[in-house]
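Treating backbone geometry as a discrete language has practical consequences that deserve illustration. The sequence in question and its structure tokens are set out directly beneath this paragraph.
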Amino acid sequence: MRYCDPEAVVGCADGTTRVFDMYSSQCSRILRMHDSEVPVTCLGLRDEDSRLLILAAGGSSITMSSGLLPDHELAAKLHVAGEIRTLSYHPCGDDRTVFAGSRDGYVYGWDLRTCRLLWETKVSWGAVCSMQHRRNDSSTLVVGGADGMLRLLDQNTGEVITKIVLDTGYCVLPSTSPASSGGGYQNRVQRLRGRRCSPDAPIDSVPSPPITCLAVGMKKVITTHSRDYIRSWEFNEASRGHSFC
């Protein structure tokens, strides 16, 4: 699901997207984005001149909708070799670029104006599960996936700028522990040291818990993991990309 005021768009298992007006609480439109046997697995939205641009990924293709108007039509369809797991749409300045991560570890960048593939980069042996960029930043894309590494990519070339992992390797961090009195649980917080790896380091050299989802802020990246906990990665600006600490 994605939200762009006042609409919320939900991807469905039958290949459609349903658009809901959050003020009237009504489904205002149902759009056919893929064949009925291809579920919509991830979405990207952008409100441009009162036209809601919808990107819906399903299987190995991304369908782009031109807007929610009576003359609505599917503007384009993009294809990749593997199954798409995540999307990130970045309309920054004059750029209209969509990024996709696949189950087989590739990241792709397309120019939506020409529907041309700009680059593709193999970043991991496992699935790319989540990616995001900082607001109004047209230089860096943050990527996370099954191998547990955070990667910073150049949005223009797809080059891996740096990789960040925990210095302790794979470390199961219990996020909760029984409360000392009464029922329920209390949070447990641990501070760990991160380590930067060179872009050409072996991609499977440091085991780490999988990253299932991430969100990028101005000075932090928040990641969720499959062991019922989240991590907050702090970073500083560097001369080339970002460095984490």
Summary: DSSP finds no helices and 23 strands in the chain. Residues 68-73, 169-183, 238-245 have pLDDT under 50 and may be disordered. Residues 158 and 231 are 25 Å apart (CA to CA). The radius of gyration is 19 Å.
